[in-house]
Amino acid sequence: MVRVTFVDVHGVEQAVAGEGDLSLMELAKANGIDGIAADCGGACSCATCLVHVDPAWVDRTGAPDDIEYAMLDMVSDVAGDTSRLACQIRLTPTLDGLRVVVAQQ
Amino acid sequence: MTQGTLAPEARSLLDTASMTDPIISARPRAYYAAMRRHDPVHWDEKLGMYLVSRYEDIATIQQDPITYSVNKGYHSQQAKGFQQEFQQILEREGGGYFPDAIMSDPPYHTRIRKLMEKAFSAHRVKALEPRITKVVTDLIDSVADRGEADAVQDFAVPLTVRIICEQLGLDWNMKDRIARWSIAVTAQIGRMQDREQMLGHAREICDLQHYLIAKMREREADPREDMISDLVHARDAEGQALSFAEAVSLIRALLIAGNETTATALGNLFYILATRPEIATLLQASVDDDRLMNRFVEELLRIEPPVRGLSRMTTREVELGGRTLPAGAHLLLMYASANDQEDVFADPRRFDLDRPNIGRHLSFGGGVHRCIGLALARMEIKVAAREIVRRIGDIQLAIPPEEIRYLPTVATQSIERLPIRFTRRG
Protein backbone atom coordinates (compact mmCIF):
# COMPACT_ATOMS: atom_id res chain seq x y z
CA MET A 1 0.00 0.00 0.00
CA VAL A 2 1.44 3.35 -1.09
CA ARG A 3 -0.15 6.46 0.45
CA VAL A 4 -0.15 9.72 -1.50
CA THR A 5 -1.46 13.19 -0.68
CA PHE A 6 -2.72 15.19 -3.65
CA VAL A 7 -3.46 18.90 -3.34
CA ASP A 8 -6.07 19.20 -6.07
CA VAL A 9 -6.74 22.18 -8.37
CA HIS A 10 -9.09 23.68 -5.76
CA GLY A 11 -6.34 23.56 -3.11
CA VAL A 12 -8.06 20.70 -1.28
CA GLU A 13 -5.82 18.01 0.21
CA GLN A 14 -6.83 14.45 -0.58
CA ALA A 15 -5.11 11.51 1.04
CA VAL A 16 -5.44 8.34 -1.05
CA ALA A 17 -3.68 5.00 -1.29
CA GLY A 18 -3.07 2.40 -3.96
CA GLU A 19 -1.60 -1.03 -4.41
CA GLY A 20 0.06 -2.93 -7.21
CA ASP A 21 1.77 -1.74 -10.36
CA LEU A 22 0.24 1.72 -10.70
CA SER A 23 1.37 5.09 -11.94
CA LEU A 24 0.68 8.22 -9.91
CA MET A 25 -1.71 9.27 -12.70
CA GLU A 26 -3.65 5.98 -12.48
CA LEU A 27 -3.96 6.43 -8.71
CA ALA A 28 -5.28 9.97 -9.23
CA LYS A 29 -7.79 8.86 -11.87
CA ALA A 30 -8.99 5.96 -9.70
CA ASN A 31 -9.70 8.48 -6.93
CA GLY A 32 -11.17 11.22 -9.15
CA ILE A 33 -8.57 13.86 -8.28
CA ASP A 34 -9.66 17.14 -9.92
CA GLY A 35 -7.15 18.52 -12.41
CA ILE A 36 -5.69 15.18 -13.53
CA ALA A 37 -7.24 14.69 -16.99
CA ALA A 38 -4.66 12.34 -18.53
CA ASP A 39 -6.09 12.69 -22.02
CA CYS A 40 -3.52 10.44 -23.67
CA GLY A 41 -4.03 7.63 -21.18
CA GLY A 42 -0.46 7.57 -19.88
CA ALA A 43 1.44 7.76 -23.16
CA CYS A 44 3.58 10.75 -22.08
CA SER A 45 2.08 12.75 -24.93
CA CYS A 46 -0.31 15.40 -23.59
CA ALA A 47 0.84 17.01 -20.31
CA THR A 48 -2.66 16.91 -18.79
CA CYS A 49 -1.55 15.04 -15.66
CA LEU A 50 0.95 17.67 -14.54
CA VAL A 51 1.91 17.77 -10.86
CA HIS A 52 4.43 19.71 -8.80
CA VAL A 53 6.26 17.26 -6.55
CA ASP A 54 6.81 18.45 -2.98
CA PRO A 55 10.51 19.43 -2.87
CA ALA A 56 11.09 16.99 0.00
CA TRP A 57 10.21 14.11 -2.38
CA VAL A 58 12.03 15.15 -5.54
CA ASP A 59 15.02 12.90 -4.87
CA ARG A 60 12.78 9.86 -4.62
CA THR A 61 10.51 10.61 -7.62
CA GLY A 62 13.57 11.30 -9.76
CA ALA A 63 14.00 13.50 -12.82
CA PRO A 64 12.02 13.38 -16.08
CA ASP A 65 13.62 11.64 -19.06
CA ASP A 66 14.10 13.47 -22.39
CA ILE A 67 10.67 12.58 -23.73
CA GLU A 68 8.89 13.71 -20.58
CA TYR A 69 11.04 16.83 -20.42
CA ALA A 70 9.93 17.78 -23.95
CA MET A 71 6.29 17.62 -22.83
CA LEU A 72 6.97 19.65 -19.67
CA ASP A 73 8.73 22.28 -21.75
CA MET A 74 5.61 22.81 -23.87
CA VAL A 75 3.57 23.85 -20.84
CA SER A 76 6.26 25.93 -19.18
CA ASP A 77 3.60 28.54 -18.40
CA VAL A 78 2.56 26.30 -15.50
CA ALA A 79 5.44 23.82 -15.11
CA GLY A 80 8.17 24.48 -12.56
CA ASP A 81 11.45 22.92 -11.40
CA THR A 82 9.80 20.05 -9.55
CA SER A 83 7.07 19.36 -12.11
CA ARG A 84 6.47 15.87 -13.42
CA LEU A 85 3.87 14.09 -15.47
CA ALA A 86 2.03 11.86 -13.03
CA CYS A 87 1.78 9.12 -15.69
CA GLN A 88 5.56 8.79 -15.66
CA ILE A 89 5.91 8.19 -11.90
CA ARG A 90 5.55 4.53 -10.84
CA LEU A 91 4.25 4.06 -7.31
CA THR A 92 6.98 2.08 -5.60
CA PRO A 93 7.07 1.47 -1.82
CA THR A 94 9.77 4.15 -1.47
CA LEU A 95 7.12 6.73 -2.44
CA ASP A 96 4.87 5.87 0.52
CA GLY A 97 3.85 9.27 1.96
CA LEU A 98 4.43 11.21 -1.31
CA ARG A 99 2.89 14.68 -1.54
CA VAL A 100 2.18 16.44 -4.87
CA VAL A 101 0.29 19.58 -5.91
CA VAL A 102 -1.85 19.25 -9.04
CA ALA A 103 -0.92 21.99 -11.54
CA GLN A 104 -3.44 24.64 -12.57
CA GLN A 105 -4.03 24.27 -16.32
CA MET B 1 -26.22 36.44 -30.57
CA THR B 2 -24.07 39.47 -31.26
CA GLN B 3 -21.61 41.29 -29.07
CA GLY B 4 -19.93 44.70 -29.46
CA THR B 5 -20.02 46.98 -32.45
CA LEU B 6 -19.88 45.19 -35.72
CA ALA B 7 -17.59 46.40 -38.49
CA PRO B 8 -19.41 46.18 -41.84
CA GLU B 9 -17.02 43.47 -43.10
CA ALA B 10 -17.59 41.35 -40.00
CA ARG B 11 -21.36 41.84 -40.29
CA SER B 12 -21.28 40.78 -43.91
CA LEU B 13 -19.18 37.70 -43.15
CA LEU B 14 -21.43 36.61 -40.30
CA ASP B 15 -24.55 37.18 -42.39
CA THR B 16 -23.45 35.57 -45.63
CA ALA B 17 -20.30 33.46 -45.25
CA SER B 18 -20.25 29.69 -44.86
CA MET B 19 -17.50 27.15 -44.29
CA THR B 20 -18.87 25.33 -47.34
CA ASP B 21 -17.98 28.30 -49.57
CA PRO B 22 -14.68 27.32 -51.27
CA ILE B 23 -13.39 30.89 -51.10
CA ILE B 24 -14.10 31.25 -47.36
CA SER B 25 -12.92 27.71 -46.73
CA ALA B 26 -9.55 28.41 -48.37
CA ARG B 27 -8.95 31.72 -46.51
CA PRO B 28 -11.11 31.53 -43.38
CA ARG B 29 -9.24 33.65 -40.84
CA ALA B 30 -11.35 36.81 -41.15
CA TYR B 31 -14.48 34.69 -40.73
CA TYR B 32 -13.02 33.01 -37.63
CA ALA B 33 -12.07 36.42 -36.18
CA ALA B 34 -15.56 37.85 -36.75
CA MET B 35 -17.11 34.82 -35.03
CA ARG B 36 -14.73 34.90 -32.07
CA ARG B 37 -15.39 38.58 -31.53
CA HIS B 38 -19.11 38.87 -32.18
CA ASP B 39 -20.80 35.49 -32.31
CA PRO B 40 -18.65 32.77 -30.70
CA VAL B 41 -21.21 29.99 -31.27
CA HIS B 42 -22.25 30.96 -34.77
CA TRP B 43 -25.00 29.31 -36.82
CA ASP B 44 -23.70 28.52 -40.31
CA GLU B 45 -26.94 28.25 -42.23
CA LYS B 46 -25.59 26.52 -45.35
CA LEU B 47 -23.64 23.99 -43.31
CA GLY B 48 -26.50 23.51 -40.84
CA MET B 49 -24.08 23.57 -37.93
CA TYR B 50 -23.01 25.82 -35.08
CA LEU B 51 -19.38 26.89 -35.47
CA VAL B 52 -17.70 27.00 -32.05
CA SER B 53 -14.82 29.44 -32.44
CA ARG B 54 -13.51 30.28 -28.96
CA TYR B 55 -10.82 28.38 -27.08
CA GLU B 56 -12.70 28.26 -23.77
CA ASP B 57 -15.91 26.96 -25.34
CA ILE B 58 -14.06 24.18 -27.18
CA ALA B 59 -12.29 23.32 -23.91
CA THR B 60 -15.68 23.08 -22.17
CA ILE B 61 -16.94 20.70 -24.86
CA GLN B 62 -13.82 18.54 -24.65
CA GLN B 63 -14.28 18.09 -20.91
CA ASP B 64 -17.87 16.86 -21.30
CA PRO B 65 -17.97 14.03 -23.87
CA ILE B 66 -21.42 12.90 -22.70
CA THR B 67 -23.26 16.19 -23.32
CA TYR B 68 -21.27 16.73 -26.52
CA SER B 69 -21.38 13.40 -28.34
CA VAL B 70 -18.71 12.46 -30.85
CA ASN B 71 -20.73 9.39 -31.83
CA LYS B 72 -23.74 11.45 -32.89
CA GLY B 73 -21.65 14.38 -34.16
CA TYR B 74 -19.36 12.28 -36.34
CA HIS B 75 -21.92 9.83 -37.67
CA SER B 76 -24.38 12.65 -38.47
CA GLN B 77 -21.63 14.39 -40.38
CA GLN B 78 -20.64 11.25 -42.31
CA ALA B 79 -21.86 11.38 -45.94
CA LYS B 80 -24.40 14.01 -44.89
CA GLY B 81 -27.12 14.42 -47.49
CA PHE B 82 -26.58 10.90 -48.88
CA GLN B 83 -26.32 8.90 -45.69
CA GLN B 84 -28.72 6.08 -46.45
CA GLU B 85 -27.42 5.58 -49.96
CA PHE B 86 -23.81 5.64 -48.72
CA GLN B 87 -24.46 3.00 -46.07
CA GLN B 88 -26.38 0.80 -48.51
CA ILE B 89 -23.52 0.85 -51.01
CA LEU B 90 -21.07 -0.24 -48.32
CA GLU B 91 -23.40 -2.98 -47.11
CA ARG B 92 -24.06 -4.23 -50.62
CA GLU B 93 -20.61 -3.91 -52.18
CA GLY B 94 -18.08 -3.19 -49.42
CA GLY B 95 -18.42 -6.14 -47.05
CA GLY B 96 -20.55 -4.10 -44.65
CA TYR B 97 -21.19 -0.68 -43.19
CA PHE B 98 -18.93 -0.42 -40.14
CA PRO B 99 -19.54 2.57 -37.85
CA ASP B 100 -16.31 4.06 -36.47
CA ALA B 101 -15.79 2.38 -33.09
CA ILE B 102 -13.38 5.09 -31.91
CA MET B 103 -15.88 7.83 -32.86
CA SER B 104 -18.03 6.86 -29.89
CA ASP B 105 -18.88 8.09 -26.39
CA PRO B 106 -17.81 6.89 -22.94
CA PRO B 107 -18.08 4.35 -21.44
CA TYR B 108 -17.96 2.28 -24.69
CA HIS B 109 -15.26 4.59 -26.05
CA THR B 110 -13.05 4.03 -22.99
CA ARG B 111 -12.69 0.31 -23.76
CA ILE B 112 -11.83 0.90 -27.41
CA ARG B 113 -9.42 3.71 -26.62
CA LYS B 114 -7.52 1.62 -24.06
CA LEU B 115 -7.02 -1.13 -26.63
CA MET B 116 -5.50 1.37 -29.03
CA GLU B 117 -3.35 3.37 -26.63
CA LYS B 118 -0.55 0.87 -26.09
CA ALA B 119 0.60 1.15 -29.68
CA PHE B 120 1.08 4.91 -29.53
CA SER B 121 3.04 5.88 -26.42
CA ALA B 122 5.74 8.49 -26.85
CA HIS B 123 8.35 5.97 -25.77
CA ARG B 124 7.23 3.37 -28.34
CA VAL B 125 7.20 6.09 -30.99
CA LYS B 126 10.76 7.07 -30.06
CA ALA B 127 11.86 3.55 -30.90
CA LEU B 128 10.47 3.99 -34.43
CA GLU B 129 12.49 7.13 -35.11
CA PRO B 130 15.55 5.57 -36.81
CA ARG B 131 13.38 3.63 -39.28
CA ILE B 132 11.26 6.67 -40.07
CA THR B 133 14.37 8.83 -40.48
CA LYS B 134 15.56 6.40 -43.15
CA VAL B 135 12.24 6.62 -45.01
CA VAL B 136 12.37 10.42 -44.86
CA THR B 137 15.98 10.75 -46.01
CA ASP B 138 15.49 8.30 -48.90
CA LEU B 139 12.53 10.26 -50.12
CA ILE B 140 14.24 13.67 -49.85
CA ASP B 141 17.36 12.34 -51.56
CA SER B 142 15.24 11.06 -54.43
CA VAL B 143 14.04 14.60 -55.26
CA ALA B 144 16.87 16.78 -53.89
CA ASP B 145 18.79 17.07 -57.20
CA ARG B 146 15.73 18.00 -59.25
CA GLY B 147 15.58 21.53 -57.89
CA GLU B 148 11.82 21.54 -58.05
CA ALA B 149 9.00 19.35 -56.84
CA ASP B 150 5.44 19.31 -55.66
CA ALA B 151 5.91 19.28 -51.89
CA VAL B 152 2.53 17.64 -51.36
CA GLN B 153 2.34 15.03 -54.13
CA ASP B 154 6.06 14.21 -54.38
CA PHE B 155 6.87 14.32 -50.70
CA ALA B 156 4.16 14.73 -48.05
CA VAL B 157 1.67 12.19 -49.39
CA PRO B 158 4.13 9.39 -50.32
CA LEU B 159 5.99 9.85 -47.03
CA THR B 160 2.98 9.44 -44.78
CA VAL B 161 1.61 6.58 -46.88
CA ARG B 162 4.95 4.81 -46.63
CA ILE B 163 5.09 5.20 -42.85
CA ILE B 164 1.53 4.03 -42.32
CA CYS B 165 2.21 1.03 -44.60
CA GLU B 166 5.14 0.06 -42.38
CA GLN B 167 3.08 0.50 -39.22
CA LEU B 168 0.15 -1.53 -40.48
CA GLY B 169 2.20 -4.04 -42.43
CA LEU B 170 0.71 -3.13 -45.82
CA ASP B 171 2.37 -3.36 -49.21
CA TRP B 172 4.12 -0.21 -50.41
CA ASN B 173 2.95 -0.81 -53.98
CA MET B 174 -0.50 0.09 -52.66
CA LYS B 175 0.48 3.74 -52.29
CA ASP B 176 -1.74 5.22 -54.99
CA ARG B 177 -4.76 3.30 -53.80
CA ILE B 178 -4.10 4.29 -50.19
CA ALA B 179 -3.85 7.96 -51.16
CA ARG B 180 -7.21 7.67 -52.99
CA TRP B 181 -8.81 5.80 -50.09
CA SER B 182 -7.70 8.52 -47.68
CA ILE B 183 -9.37 11.21 -49.76
CA ALA B 184 -12.52 9.10 -50.07
CA VAL B 185 -12.87 8.46 -46.34
CA THR B 186 -12.05 12.00 -45.20
CA ALA B 187 -14.43 13.46 -47.80
CA GLN B 188 -17.28 11.83 -45.83
CA ILE B 189 -16.83 14.37 -43.01
CA GLY B 190 -15.85 17.19 -45.37
CA ARG B 191 -19.39 18.26 -46.30
CA MET B 192 -18.33 19.46 -49.74
CA GLN B 193 -18.95 16.41 -51.97
CA ASP B 194 -21.86 16.21 -54.40
CA ARG B 195 -23.74 12.94 -55.05
CA GLU B 196 -21.58 11.88 -57.95
CA GLN B 197 -18.44 12.40 -55.86
CA MET B 198 -20.03 10.49 -52.98
CA LEU B 199 -20.69 7.54 -55.30
CA GLY B 200 -17.06 7.54 -56.46
CA HIS B 201 -15.80 7.81 -52.88
CA ALA B 202 -18.14 5.05 -51.69
CA ARG B 203 -16.69 2.72 -54.35
CA GLU B 204 -13.17 3.55 -53.16
CA ILE B 205 -14.21 2.77 -49.58
CA CYS B 206 -15.65 -0.59 -50.70
CA ASP B 207 -12.30 -1.37 -52.33
CA LEU B 208 -10.50 -0.29 -49.14
CA GLN B 209 -12.65 -2.48 -46.91
CA HIS B 210 -12.22 -5.57 -49.09
CA TYR B 211 -8.47 -5.05 -49.01
CA LEU B 212 -8.37 -4.57 -45.22
CA ILE B 213 -10.65 -7.53 -44.51
CA ALA B 214 -8.40 -9.79 -46.58
CA LYS B 215 -5.33 -8.51 -44.70
CA MET B 216 -7.06 -9.09 -41.38
CA ARG B 217 -7.78 -12.69 -42.34
CA GLU B 218 -4.11 -13.19 -43.24
CA ARG B 219 -2.93 -11.73 -39.92
CA GLU B 220 -5.45 -13.76 -37.95
CA ALA B 221 -3.90 -16.92 -39.32
CA ASP B 222 -0.33 -15.69 -39.41
CA PRO B 223 0.40 -12.81 -36.97
CA ARG B 224 3.33 -10.48 -37.62
CA GLU B 225 4.91 -7.44 -35.97
CA ASP B 226 2.39 -4.89 -37.18
CA MET B 227 -0.69 -3.03 -35.97
CA ILE B 228 -3.19 -5.14 -37.93
CA SER B 229 -1.89 -8.23 -36.15
CA ASP B 230 -2.00 -6.34 -32.83
CA LEU B 231 -5.63 -5.35 -33.32
CA VAL B 232 -7.01 -8.65 -34.58
CA HIS B 233 -5.41 -10.37 -31.59
CA ALA B 234 -6.06 -7.60 -29.03
CA ARG B 235 -7.87 -8.47 -25.79
CA ASP B 236 -9.29 -5.96 -23.33
CA ALA B 237 -8.95 -6.11 -19.51
CA GLU B 238 -11.74 -8.74 -19.41
CA GLY B 239 -10.10 -10.85 -22.10
CA GLN B 240 -12.64 -9.82 -24.75
CA ALA B 241 -11.53 -9.47 -28.37
CA LEU B 242 -12.78 -6.71 -30.66
CA SER B 243 -15.75 -7.63 -32.80
CA PHE B 244 -15.11 -8.03 -36.52
CA ALA B 245 -16.95 -4.76 -37.27
CA GLU B 246 -14.97 -2.90 -34.59
CA ALA B 247 -11.67 -4.25 -35.86
CA VAL B 248 -12.41 -3.28 -39.49
CA SER B 249 -13.41 0.22 -38.44
CA LEU B 250 -10.35 0.71 -36.24
CA ILE B 251 -7.86 -0.52 -38.83
CA ARG B 252 -9.58 1.70 -41.40
CA ALA B 253 -9.26 4.62 -38.94
CA LEU B 254 -5.57 3.91 -38.33
CA LEU B 255 -4.91 3.82 -42.05
CA ILE B 256 -6.77 7.04 -42.82
CA ALA B 257 -6.64 9.27 -39.73
CA GLY B 258 -2.90 9.38 -39.45
CA ASN B 259 -2.34 9.60 -43.15
CA GLU B 260 -4.10 12.59 -44.63
CA THR B 261 -3.66 14.76 -41.53
CA THR B 262 0.08 14.15 -41.27
CA ALA B 263 0.49 14.70 -45.00
CA THR B 264 -1.31 18.01 -44.55
CA ALA B 265 1.06 18.94 -41.72
CA LEU B 266 4.07 18.14 -43.94
CA GLY B 267 2.64 20.28 -46.75
CA ASN B 268 2.27 23.08 -44.20
CA LEU B 269 5.86 22.51 -43.10
CA PHE B 270 7.07 23.21 -46.65
CA TYR B 271 4.75 26.21 -46.88
CA ILE B 272 6.30 27.72 -43.73
CA LEU B 273 9.88 26.96 -44.87
CA ALA B 274 9.14 28.56 -48.26
CA THR B 275 7.36 31.65 -46.98
CA ARG B 276 9.26 32.35 -43.75
CA PRO B 277 12.93 32.01 -44.75
CA GLU B 278 14.07 33.26 -41.32
CA ILE B 279 12.50 30.16 -39.80
CA ALA B 280 14.24 27.93 -42.36
CA THR B 281 17.57 29.59 -41.51
CA LEU B 282 16.98 29.14 -37.78
CA LEU B 283 16.16 25.46 -38.26
CA GLN B 284 19.26 24.90 -40.40
CA ALA B 285 21.35 26.23 -37.52
CA SER B 286 19.43 24.20 -34.93
CA VAL B 287 19.02 20.67 -36.31
CA ASP B 288 20.78 19.21 -33.27
CA ASP B 289 18.77 21.27 -30.79
CA ASP B 290 16.01 18.85 -29.91
CA ARG B 291 14.18 21.34 -27.69
CA LEU B 292 13.98 23.91 -30.46
CA MET B 293 12.89 21.30 -32.99
CA ASN B 294 10.12 20.09 -30.65
CA ARG B 295 8.92 23.65 -30.13
CA PHE B 296 9.03 24.30 -33.86
CA VAL B 297 6.70 21.36 -34.47
CA GLU B 298 4.20 22.60 -31.86
CA GLU B 299 4.18 26.13 -33.24
CA LEU B 300 3.77 24.82 -36.80
CA LEU B 301 0.77 22.80 -35.63
CA ARG B 302 -0.68 25.81 -33.82
CA ILE B 303 -0.28 28.30 -36.62
CA GLU B 304 -1.35 25.94 -39.45
CA PRO B 305 -3.51 23.23 -37.89
CA PRO B 306 -4.20 20.37 -40.32
CA VAL B 307 -7.53 19.49 -38.71
CA ARG B 308 -9.51 22.66 -38.33
CA GLY B 309 -13.01 21.44 -37.50
CA LEU B 310 -14.45 18.23 -36.09
CA SER B 311 -18.02 17.66 -35.00
CA ARG B 312 -20.04 16.99 -31.88
CA MET B 313 -23.78 16.77 -31.25
CA THR B 314 -25.51 17.89 -28.06
CA THR B 315 -27.41 15.16 -26.20
CA ARG B 316 -29.39 17.64 -24.07
CA GLU B 317 -30.21 21.34 -23.96
CA VAL B 318 -27.08 23.17 -22.85
CA GLU B 319 -25.70 26.70 -22.52
CA LEU B 320 -22.53 27.39 -24.49
CA GLY B 321 -20.79 30.69 -25.19
CA GLY B 322 -23.86 32.69 -24.14
CA ARG B 323 -26.23 30.71 -26.36
CA THR B 324 -28.75 28.05 -25.40
CA LEU B 325 -28.35 25.03 -27.67
CA PRO B 326 -31.16 22.50 -28.00
CA ALA B 327 -30.55 18.75 -27.77
CA GLY B 328 -29.44 17.50 -31.19
CA ALA B 329 -27.52 20.68 -32.14
CA HIS B 330 -24.73 19.79 -34.55
CA LEU B 331 -21.47 21.59 -33.74
CA LEU B 332 -18.20 22.09 -35.58
CA LEU B 333 -15.28 22.74 -33.22
CA MET B 334 -13.10 25.30 -34.98
CA TYR B 335 -9.66 24.37 -33.65
CA ALA B 336 -7.96 26.68 -36.15
CA SER B 337 -9.89 29.62 -34.74
CA ALA B 338 -9.07 28.79 -31.11
CA ASN B 339 -5.38 28.58 -32.03
CA ASP B 340 -5.62 32.17 -33.25
CA GLN B 341 -7.27 33.57 -30.14
CA GLU B 342 -5.27 36.60 -28.96
CA ASP B 343 -5.91 36.31 -25.23
CA VAL B 344 -4.59 32.73 -25.29
CA PHE B 345 -1.75 33.11 -27.81
CA ALA B 346 -0.44 36.70 -27.87
CA ASP B 347 0.15 38.04 -31.40
CA PRO B 348 -1.20 34.77 -32.80
CA ARG B 349 -0.01 35.15 -36.41
CA ARG B 350 3.57 35.51 -35.19
CA PHE B 351 5.57 32.27 -35.50
CA ASP B 352 7.00 32.37 -31.99
CA LEU B 353 9.13 29.50 -30.71
CA ASP B 354 9.34 31.04 -27.24
CA ARG B 355 5.67 30.85 -26.30
CA PRO B 356 5.46 29.57 -22.72
CA ASN B 357 2.18 27.80 -23.56
CA ILE B 358 3.33 26.51 -26.96
CA GLY B 359 1.80 23.08 -26.29
CA ARG B 360 -1.69 24.41 -25.57
CA HIS B 361 -2.91 24.59 -29.17
CA LEU B 362 -6.00 22.54 -29.97
CA SER B 363 -4.64 20.98 -33.14
CA PHE B 364 -4.83 17.50 -31.58
CA GLY B 365 -8.19 18.22 -29.96
CA GLY B 366 -8.43 17.48 -26.24
CA GLY B 367 -10.21 15.48 -23.59
CA VAL B 368 -10.91 11.77 -24.06
CA HIS B 369 -10.88 12.12 -27.86
CA ARG B 370 -7.48 13.79 -28.08
CA CYS B 371 -5.61 12.48 -31.13
CA ILE B 372 -4.21 9.07 -30.25
CA GLY B 373 -1.40 9.28 -32.79
CA LEU B 374 -0.08 12.62 -31.62
CA ALA B 375 3.36 11.41 -30.55
CA LEU B 376 3.88 9.65 -33.89
CA ALA B 377 2.68 12.74 -35.79
CA ARG B 378 5.02 15.03 -33.87
CA MET B 379 7.95 12.73 -34.48
CA GLU B 380 7.27 12.40 -38.23
CA ILE B 381 7.05 16.18 -38.58
CA LYS B 382 10.19 16.76 -36.52
CA VAL B 383 12.23 14.21 -38.46
CA ALA B 384 10.96 15.62 -41.76
CA ALA B 385 11.80 19.21 -40.75
CA ARG B 386 15.28 18.24 -39.59
CA GLU B 387 16.16 16.16 -42.64
CA ILE B 388 14.65 18.62 -45.13
CA VAL B 389 16.65 21.62 -43.88
CA ARG B 390 19.78 19.47 -43.76
CA ARG B 391 19.43 18.39 -47.38
CA ILE B 392 17.78 21.22 -49.28
CA GLY B 393 17.85 25.01 -48.97
CA ASP B 394 16.52 28.21 -50.57
CA ILE B 395 13.06 26.70 -50.61
CA GLN B 396 10.63 28.95 -52.48
CA LEU B 397 7.08 28.70 -53.70
CA ALA B 398 6.94 28.18 -57.47
CA ILE B 399 3.43 29.65 -57.61
CA PRO B 400 2.06 32.85 -56.05
CA PRO B 401 0.64 32.09 -52.57
CA GLU B 402 -2.85 33.21 -53.62
CA GLU B 403 -2.92 30.39 -56.20
CA ILE B 404 -2.60 27.69 -53.53
CA ARG B 405 -5.66 25.44 -53.65
CA TYR B 406 -7.07 23.37 -50.82
CA LEU B 407 -8.94 20.09 -50.68
CA PRO B 408 -12.72 20.71 -50.59
CA THR B 409 -13.54 19.89 -46.96
CA VAL B 410 -14.54 21.72 -43.82
CA ALA B 411 -12.68 19.20 -41.63
CA THR B 412 -9.12 19.94 -42.67
CA GLN B 413 -7.24 22.72 -44.39
CA SER B 414 -5.10 20.68 -46.75
CA ILE B 415 -2.98 22.14 -49.52
CA GLU B 416 -3.70 20.18 -52.70
CA ARG B 417 -0.48 20.88 -54.56
CA LEU B 418 2.51 22.96 -53.51
CA PRO B 419 5.03 23.47 -56.34
CA ILE B 420 8.37 24.56 -54.86
CA ARG B 421 11.93 25.32 -56.01
CA PHE B 422 15.03 24.64 -53.93
CA THR B 423 18.73 23.89 -54.05
CA ARG B 424 20.60 20.87 -52.76
CA ARG B 425 22.66 21.53 -49.65
CA GLY B 426 26.07 20.12 -48.79
TrEMBL record, chain A:
Domain 2Fe-2S ferredoxin-type per the UniProt entry, residue ranges: 1-105
Q: InterPro entries, from UniProt?
A: 2Fe-2S_ferredoxin-like_sf (IPR036010), 2Fe-2S_ferredoxin-type (IPR001041), Adrenodoxin-like (IPR001055), Beta-grasp_dom_sf (IPR012675)
Identify which cofactors the protein needs according to its UniProt entry: [2Fe-2S] cluster
Family statement drawn from the similarity comment of this UniProt entry: Belongs to the adrenodoxin/putidaredoxin family.
Source domain of life: Bacteria
Name of the protein described by the UniProt record: 2Fe-2S ferredoxin
Q: Which organism is it from?
A: Sphingobium scionense
PANTHER family documented for this protein: FERREDOXIN-2, MITOCHONDRIAL (PTHR23426:SF65), FERREDOXIN/ADRENODOXIN (PTHR23426)
* Keywords, comma-separated and alphabetical: 2Fe-2S, Iron, Iron-sulfur, Metal-binding
Alphabetical list of Pfam families matching this protein: Fer2
Q: Does the keyword Iron apply?
A: yes
Q: Name one GO biological process term.
A: P450-containing electron transport chain
The entry lists its GO molecular-function terms as:
2 iron, 2 sulfur cluster binding; electron transfer activity; metal ion binding
TrEMBL record, chain B:
Q: What is this organism's lineage? A: Bacteria, Pseudomonadati, Pseudomonadota, Alphaproteobacteria, Sphingomonadales
Q: Which molecular function GO terms apply here?
A: heme binding; iron ion binding; monooxygenase activity; oxidoreductase activity, acting on paired donors, with incorporation or reduction of molecular oxygen
Cited SUPFAM superfamilies: Cytochrome P450 (SSF48264)
Could you tell me which species this protein originates from? Sphingobium scionense
Q: What name does the UniProt record give this protein?
A: Cytochrome P450
**Gene3D superfamilies recorded:** Cytochrome P450
Does the UniProt entry include the keyword Signal? no
The free-text function statement in the UniProt record for this protein reads: Cytochromes P450 are a group of heme-thiolate monooxygenases. They oxidize a variety of structurally unrelated compounds, including steroids, fatty acids, and xenobiotics.
Q: Which PROSITE patterns match?
A: CYTOCHROME_P450
One family name in Pfam for this protein: p450
InterPro entries recorded? Cyt_P450, Cyt_P450_B, Cyt_P450_CS, Cyt_P450_sf
Q: Which UniProt keywords apply?
A: Heme, Iron, Metal-binding, Monooxygenase, Oxidoreductase
Q: What family name appears in the similarity comment? A: Belongs to the cytochrome P450 family.
